[in-house]
Amino acid sequence: MLSESPVSPEYLSEALQLHLADDLVEHGWSQQNIFLPAQLTLELAAECRLLATSGALNAASVGRGTTQAIRTDIRGDQILWLKAGQSPACDHYLHIMENLRVALNRELFLGLVDYESHFALYAPGASYQTHLDRFRDDDCRTVSVVIYLNQDWLPEQGGALRLHPQGECTQDIAPLGSRLVLFLSADMLHEVLPATRDRLSLAGWFRRRPA
Ligand code: OGA
Ligand code: MN
Question: Is the CB of 101 under 6 A from ligand 1?
Answer without folding.
Answer: no
